[in-house]
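Journal club prep — side note

Before the paper discussion, L.F. wants everyone to see what a predicted structure for a comparable chain looks like in token form. Sequence:
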Amino acid sequence: MFSYPEASRLLRTSCEFPLGPQDIRHLSIDTRTLTPGDLFVALMGEHADGHGFLRTAFEKGASGALVDARQKDTIIAGSKKDNWKIHNLLAVPDPRQAMAALAAAYRRNLSVKVIGITGSVGKTTTKEFLYYLLRQRYSVLATSGNLNNHLGVPMMLSRLEPAHQFCVLEMGASHLGEIRYLADLAGPSGGILTPIGPAHLEGFGSLENVYRTKLELADSLEKDGPLVVPADDAYLLELISSRKMHPVTVGTSPRADYRIGQVFVRGGEVFFTVNDRYQFSFPGQAPFLALNAGLAIAMARSLGMAWEALPQKWQDVGFASGRFRETILPNGVRVIDDSYNANPVSFENALKAFHSLPRTGKKVVVFADMLELGDGEDRFHRELGEKIASIDADLVLAYGKRTVASIDAVTHARAACVARHFDGADALEIFLKEALKPGDAVLFKGSRSMHVEKILAGVTAMTFKD
């Protein structure tokens, strides 16, 4: 990224205990993932203070540290007392802001084209699809893990190399202004909006504000930068039209620029066509992801890729865990892991796909609360129960205070379905282990902090008596 003298000039602070010649390789906020040469940024978190890990950072090879100026004297005194070495110390009023400033300045020095992706549903999958397509021909960096917020985006930008031609960045938000902040750092050349719906309403306050925030990406694009959006969201298209923008549209609408059709699942693959002419397939059991694949195709084409350069079979797409991933466990239970997160739109998509799966045994839905839905959370959970009742599930199990409304709705709408609510995940897991048999299929779904994946881990370890 920078030499330490360059970084100190940029941040308008001195570099204390200089040790050179050393450059900043990447930015790191976690000693567990720090690699030699990284600049360790000491941040105050909810559960820990990064300044308490400085010794570990230097022992693991950090080339320097970015710290809060108010803690500098304490840090230096502590290192002398405990006899460990400090070098290339940059003390600033706000390490978080300084980290962002370094990342933004570094990005401005590079000619790479950044493609931002935001929306309420399918950001990560769309990112993986686009990354797969672009890397067929170009050198590409893409967001790894969940590095899609005000801390993750600067770290991703720090990983750029001069040889990279494209950078695909996922951008998440839970409040107005957050996408604009990330876009200001990244300087996107193009953007994709995935489907928008009621997610993080507790922070946004209204669905209208969700739309406003996601459109901050569109407002931040460079002149004539491609904007790819779903064609079937009339409200979104109206908002974009009012901005005098001309998006590239993708969807089932006959008016879509990239029209998705003939979607079906066969042999563990999802097949679909674009404009009734070009056929593609990717691994999995989730036909709703054809839209996300279409969004990626539209952006790849907008960036100059010919149809002939796009593979027909996408065999090595790097799907992230917890996104409708199907696994047949050694014990014979078929699990659909969609536990990474949940909101009303993503849950409805998952239920439709689960309903379409062929059955060999019982179909079981295991779920927990959808969080951050604000004042409408009871209504959304009741509607969720009604949607669950409309599919062919035999057993519906839930925990979390909000899902009481969902289980009540299932019970009232479909008496033939066994629906139970539990006080916690442990009690649900005990019941589930007694109820499951080889051949049963289980959908796992819930908001990230509800940790539905822990129940999945328990099911994975199950064995059945002969």
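L.F.'s comment for the group: The radius of gyration is 24 Å. Keep this in mind when we get to the figures.
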